[in-house]
Design brief:
Helix content: 40-55%
Strand content: 15-25%
Largest sheet: 6 strands, antiparallel, barrel
Number of helices: 13
Radius of gyration: 32 Å
Strand order of the largest sheet: 8-9-10-16-15-14
Length: 634
């Protein structure tokens, strides 16, 4: 699908927001000039994490390819390499820390550079030396980029504090500070698993050394080998099978040394390497450390808002269709240049039995709220399209904020960021929500007519694009072949619960595959014909309540009595738009919303028969069963 123009904007009356608390009367407006200076203080382009991640990834792969691989020998045995494990873990971790945790990068990058200089540079060949020097350069770039990002945060904080004309404590009562607790708990649990793995590895190394100190060195000759072991014959004629990580290094006829301590035996060149515990240590330790540090930083930033008076600024905000909040300068009433963006949750206080307001819980904000229209409950915007809010805290990339905002019904709400504040890329802004634009004003303004909607009186149809069909075909192929293979296992091996569950699980994929291959929304003079994976449903125009697409790239159409018709997981709209696509499951929400509010644009002809859509679920199920039976009894 080719890129199409954006929907034609519709003028929306700006409802007057209720007055904000009088204690904030001295709060200044964050002007466009101040906001522009704040935005220009962002990190330099070279400090984007992408460049550091790519540089480290490419150079590490080069260094691994160029590194010599010396064999294990009796004179130079292998064994557990804890320093090498640390080197590997830091290299893997920095790929994430470069992007998300510059605070950790400032410590981890120099440590890894020191390990590389100690382990890799001495006695390195020309290729390996060049590769590892490039690794050190990539680490230097990542460290400098992290320092620049943290310096940019300080610059932005100073500029915001200078722009603020007043400071106030955050309004209360607030819910207990829970920010970061789940991340910290998960991180500590994973670090406990990592500590257990490390203890197991060290215990195994100690046990191996204890046996090796008591062992007798015996001579043996290799008589065979497989993928995991070698077979040797000792001088006294015994045939032994010894585990080996590198059996290819032992040619038949070679005479490796063998250590024997009663029933304990191993090759002298291969002490216990603790590779299993080391992998467990990395698998649990890296995410555990990342989660713990992320939780600690989030908790510290959130707690800083509550410690005392903080800078206060008046800004404008709007919420997109995914519930993401975008902040604009206080005088940018046209919402042309978003300054920052964040996910937010509402602080929900409650009254106790004595009528006193107490801190309550938190509630995820939904850009829509239920409103009754014509006796039916309909989801409409809970907020005006753009509204003035008071922002507590000095905004900066990765920081935390608290906002006092006004609701559509005239009430007020306290919301806080549920994740770090992020800087939008230049030219990026919130996705326009046709349903929100359609109902933004209290009087209910009709939805905009997208430029993609061309009406001729004939029925209109929306269906899957090439990417959706390709994914659906691949999913159907995997489901059918997998079900056939496991059905054959059931026939040949008898009752196998695991194989039976696999068959049922794979067949359940057919519904998703059928939906991706041939979903349809067809509009004619009578209403909408909705075709999913298994059946076709008809919805008259007068019963159409709402239409929107969901965060998972699906379509949801509202019906009377709070009923909904859903097609989940049709694609990834943000990714597809980045490649210049205008997905059909996004266009259907825009164009059907326009048809609902502009009856004169609706088709005048009716559709009949196969033109209403053909669900592929039954056909795919019959095909899968036929292939499975044919394969099972072949």
């Amino acid at each position: 699908m080719s890129e199409t123009p954006a929907p034609i904007p519709v003028p929306i009356p700006a409802p007057a927001p209720p007055p904000l608390p009088s204690v904030l009367a001295d709060t200044g407006v964050w002007s466009s000039g101040d906001a522009a200076r704040w935005s220009h203080a962002r990190p330099a382009p070279w400090a984007r994490p992408l460049w550091s991640v790519l540089a480290l990834l490419i150079t590490v792969v080069w260094a691994i390819a160029a590194a010599p691989d010396p064999p294990c020998t009796d004179a130079a045995p292998c064994g557990a390499d804890w320093l090498g494990m640390t080197e590997t873990g830091l290299a893997v971790g920095l790929l994430y820390w470069f992007a998300r945790l510059p605070e950790v990068t400032l410590v981890a990058a120099p440590v890894l550079a020191a390990i590389v200089a100690r382990l890799e540079l001495p006695d390195a060949g020309p290729d390996s030396l060049a590769a590892n020097l490039c690794v050190l350069a990539a680490l230097g770039l990542g460290w400098a980029a992290a320092a620049e990002r943290l310096a940019a945060r300080r610059r932005q904080r100073d500029l915001a504090e200078a722009a603020a004309t007043a400071r106030h404590p955050v309004p209360g009562p607030l819910a207990p500070l829970r920010r970061g607790l789940i991340l910290m708990g998960a991180g500590l649990a994973l670090l406990a698993v990592a500590a257990f793995s490390a203890a197991e590895g060290l215990a195994g190394v100690h046990d191996d050394r204890r046996h090796a100190d008591r062992a007798v060195l015996i001579a043996a000759k290799v008589v065979g080998r497989d993928d995991e072991s070698v077979r040797v014959r000792t001088d006294d004629g015994r045939l032994l099978r010894l585990d080996s990580l590198y059996p290819e290094d032992y040619r038949p006829g070679s005479e490796p040394a063998v250590l024997e301590d009663d029933a304990w035996r191993r090759l002298a060149a291969e002490p216990y390497d603790a590779i299993g515990p080391q992998l467990g240590l990395l698998a649990a330790g890296l995410p555990g450390l990342s989660l713990l540090v992320t939780g600690l930083l989030a908790r510290r930033r959130a707690a800083a808002l509550r410690r005392g008076p903080v800078p206060v600024l008046r800004v404008l905000e709007r919420m997109d269709r995914d519930g993401l909040l975008w902040i604009y300068a206080g005088d940018d009433t046209a919402a042309r240049r978003p300054v920052l963006t964040a996910d937010v949750v509402a602080e929900v206080p409650h009254e106790d039995e004595h009528g006193r307001v107490r801190p309550g819980g938190e509630e995820q904000l939904n850009p829509r709220g239920p409103v009754r229209r014509g006796g039916e409950e309909e989801l409409v915007p809970a907020f005006p399209l753009s509204r003035e809010v008071v922002m507590f805290g000095a905004p900066r990339d990765g920081g935390e904020l608290l906002l006092v905002t006004t609701l559509r019904d005239g009430g007020s709400a306290v919301v806080r960021t549920s994740g770090p504040v992020r800087l939008p890329r230049p030219g990026r802004g919130p996705e326009a929500d046709p349903e929100t634009e359609a109902r933004a004003a209290a009087g209910g303004v009709a939805a905009a007519v997208p430029a993609t909607l061309i009406t001729t009186g004939r029925p209109l149809s929306w269906g899957p694009g090439h990417l959706g069909r390709a994914v659906g075909a691949a999913l159907a192929l995997v489901a059918i072949v997998g079900a056939a293979v496991n059905a054959r296992t059931l026939v040949t091996d008898g009752v196998d619960v695991k194989a039976a569950l696999y068959v049922l699980f794979l067949l359940s994929w057919l519904a998703t595959a059928a939906q991706l291959l041939n979903w349809r929304v067809i509009a004619d003079s009578s209403g909408l014909w909705l075709s999913g994976g298994w059946k076709v449903r008809h919805l008259p125009w007068e019963q159409l309540r709402s239409v929107r697409y969901t965060k998972d790239g699906g379509v949801e159409i509202g019906m009377p009595d709070s009923d909904h018709w859903r097609l989940p997981g049709l694609g990834m709209p943000k990714l597809e738009r980045r490649f210049g696509r205008n997905p059909s499951y996004v266009r259907v929400t825009e164009e059907v919303a326009a048809l609902r509010d502009h009856p004169e644009l609706r088709p005048t002809e009716a559709v009949s028969g196969r033109g209403r859509g053909v669900p592929l679920g039954p056909a795919l199920l019959v095909l899968a069963v036929a292939v499975a039976l044919a394969w099972a009894f072949h």
